[in-house]
From TrEMBL:
<protein>
    <recommendedName>
        <fullName>SH3 domain-containing protein</fullName>
    </recommendedName>
</protein>
<feature type="region of interest" description="Disordered">
    <location>
        <begin position="436"/>
        <end position="456"/>
    </location>
</feature>
<feature type="compositionally biased region" description="Pro residues">
    <location>
        <begin position="439"/>
        <end position="448"/>
    </location>
</feature>
Length: 543
């Protein structure tokens, strides 16, 4: 089990001349083990500002974190305003209840204050002890967020006891895939899951919860090696389940029904990802490199069976391969019209195939998408030739051979225009080489993003709609990460009055998401406090 060491800020200082309240010792326990979360962010803007001090929302106390709706917090106590001018809380008028909660973000170990209107309590908390050694308040514990005008009724009970589990899915490429399964989340919403190895995010994915608040992704987190692996949603975190090895996929072959003078291959696969298309290649003794390829789609249980993907009467050995997995080998010969074994084995029709000769095919330069055919050692005569396609739809035609060798390049042989498809030719038991249809040229590499480098002072959320800090949530910018911003624009006014927003150009955001410039240093600084830093960097061009 991965244990994350969480260090708690423990300082509370009252500056009576300025109205500041900051974190002081003896308010937050110093033990390494944290209590469970007892509060959930629930704000009209979609996020809350966590500040190092209370009763100020301006440049004197800039936010260090902006946890999003649904983010769970450890709420320690409630703080009330003092008498005089500071009794009027920011944006709350003269409402007599306490105005701030003292909280710790369990994911980043950051401790500070958040407006009481932006946090829904799951359990009661006491009042914070008075400053400068006075006795604790005797008022009853705060039990719920008061119904301030304009604040919606809390929906946080849907998020109580949210769960994230990472069951083992399958082994692949020296590592293992772990499914992502969520429950007890807010219904019909996108949840971003970040997969970590130690402190590095190695994969990010988004899953959508159903009406019950559940979601799952079979191909969730991919981890290589032992230890140091975990995932989180910003609400909860989990370690991967390694209780047993992932079941290896299996491929089983059996002799199927009679088809002319041959038998169908009955192919069964199991242990594959659900609802996935697999490519099955059929082999026999006459064509050990494979003679037919077809697609097989797994069901929800990762299993599938094909009864008529390919057939053969050329024995004695038959098998199939699916990727790097080879089936068992099954022996049979040709079948008579009644299904009994026949003395001649073939996948072709009468006349009997020649016992000598070879075929080769190539792409025609005179007739694009058509093949050229070159025969050797067949002898003069008219033959049936069959064009086989990996995508299916084999066709048989006649060709008259009058020379040896002889090449046919007349735009009337076989053609294939499906990118990635395979084609080969047979005349009796003679089989040609296999050609693969070229795919479209690869797209040019994406243009490298341009912009000005800016650094955030804390974990910063991004959004598609900067006018209301909403729309679709984008990837979170980790604390103290430097990103490229392409331009600035005005939009949603954050708590301290700052209306500037940056459009994030770095890969992953791709100029599709915006973040409030309030979360950035905006002066070239890359660490330290945001207090006293500019609201926006004037060197960033307007959008």
């Amino acid at each position: 089990m991965r244990v994350r060491s969480l260090l708690l800020a423990t300082v509370l200082i009252l500056l009576t001349t300025t109205g500041f309240l900051t974190v002081r010792h003896q308010l937050v326990p110093t033990a390494n083990a944290l209590p469970p979360a007892n509060g959930v962010v629930l704000a009209d803007s979609g996020y809350a500002n966590l500040r190092p001090c209370a009763f100020h929302d301006d440049e004197r106390c800039k936010p260090t974190l902006q946890p999003a709706n649904g983010h769970q917090l450890i709420v320690w106590c409630a703080v009330t305003p003092f008498s005089g001018e500071n009794s009027r809380l920011y944006g709350l008028g003269d409402y007599p209840l306490p105005g701030w909660f003292m909280v710790t973000d369990p994911m980043s170990s950051t401790t500070g204050f958040i407006h009481i209107t932006l946090v829904h309590l799951l359990r009661a908390v006491p009042w914070c002890a008075d400053q400068e050694g006075e006795v604790a308040r005797t008022a009853p514990p705060v039990t719920s967020t008061p119904p301030y005008e304009g604040v919606p009724d809390p929906k946080a009970p849907e998020m109580i006891n949210s769960h994230l589990v990472l069951p083992l899915s399958r082994s692949a490429g020296g590592g293992s895939w772990h499914a992502v399964k969520l429950r007890n989340y807010q219904s019909e919403t996108n949840v971003v899951v970040r997969c970590h190895t130690d402190d590095t995010v190695v994969r990010t994915l988004s899953v959508h919860t159903d009406a019950n608040g559940s979601a799952s992704a079979e191909q969730g987190c991919y981890f290589v090696g032992d230890g140091g692996h975990w995932a989180e949603t910003g609400i909860v975190q989990a370690n991967p389940d390694t209780s047993g090895p992932a079941a290896a996929p299996t491929v089983t072959l059996a002799k199927g029904a009679v088809r002319e003078r041959a038998f169908w291959y009955r192919v069964t696969v199991a242990g594959y990802p659900p609802n996935t298309d697999l490519s099955v290649l059929c082999h026999d003794t006459a064509s050990p490199a494979g003679f037919r390829q077809f697609k097989l789609r797994t069901g929800a249980d990762g299993r599938a069976t094909a009864e008529n993907g390919c057939f053969s009467g050329d024995g004695p050995d038959h098998w199939v391969t699916v990727g790097g997995v080879t089936s068992n080998h099954v022996a049979w010969g040709a079948a008579s019209a009644t299904g009994a074994p026949a003395t001649t084995a073939s996948r072709a029709t009468d006349p009997p195939p020649p016992t000598m000769g070879s075929l080769s095919i190539g792409w025609s330069s005179a007739h694009p998408s058509w093949i050229t055919i070159t025969t050797r050692g067949l002898g003069s005569g008219t033959y049936d030739y069959t064009c086989h396609f990996g995508s299916g739809g084999d066709r048989t035609f006649k060709v008259t051979v009058s020379a040896d060798p002889q090449t046919f390049d007349n735009g009337n042989t076989c053609y294939d225009q499906i990118p990635g498809d395979t084609v080969w030719l047979t005349i009796g038991s003679a089989r040609s080489n296999t050609l693969t249809v070229a795919g479209p040229p690869p797209p040019p590499p994406p243009a490298q993003p341009t912009g000005r480098s800016e650094t955030v002072g804390g974990v910063t959320h991004t959004w598609t709609n900067y006018t209301n800090a909403g729309g679709t949530a984008g990837p979170v910018i980790p604390a103290h990460q430097t990103v490229l911003v392409s331009c600035k624009t005005t939009g949603f006014r954050v708590a301290n009055g700052n209306t500037w927003w940056y459009r994030i150009a770095s890969p992953g955001w791709d100029n599709r998401f915006y973040a409030s410039s309030d979360a950035f240093y905006n002066n070239g600084q890359t660490s330290g406090s945001l207090v006293g830093t500019p609201w926006v960097d004037p060197a960033v061009p307007d959008c």
